[in-house]
Protein: ASGL1 asparaginase
Amino acid sequence: LGRMKPVIVVHGGAGRIFKEREEGCRAGVVRAALRGYSVLKRGGSAVDAVEEAVQSMEDDPHFNAGCGSVLNEKGEVEMDAIIMDGKNLDSGAVSAVKCIANPIKLARLVMEKTKHMLLTDHGAHLFAQAMGIPEIPGEKLITERSRERWKKNLEPDSNPEEFQK
Structure:
């Protein structure tokens, strides 16, 4: 049968993309797909390719993942990630993680290094430390755009300063 040609599909999120962001979003999806595809071309696994593509989007402020995430009520970045291996249906996930640039890497470690499927908040934080995942200041994940969206979406009469430390 010969070798199958590798294929990767990248989904950059849902919702409306405004004209001024269209080019950056398209370029980001193409970059993520190409990074994942290059892993496949080098003989890397599908899971390697997915992790690489998602990491590319987590590092790109155009997407609601990693840097550029939508802020929680307190104005913080709190992220979720999940990864699955289609060969054996193993999966790993993290939720409510903070101060980590690439939650997809942590989700993969949950899949490969634990008997758990999901770690959340404090447990995920302790696991990240144990695995040597570097922490970054939460502010580094906040973009001007996400801060503006957060302010706009606050409940009327709420005081955003009371949420901030």
Remarks:
- Residues 19-154 form one domain.
- The first strand starts at residue 79 and ends at 85.
- The two ends are 61 Å apart (CA to CA).
- Residues 59 and 125 are 20 Å apart (CA to CA).
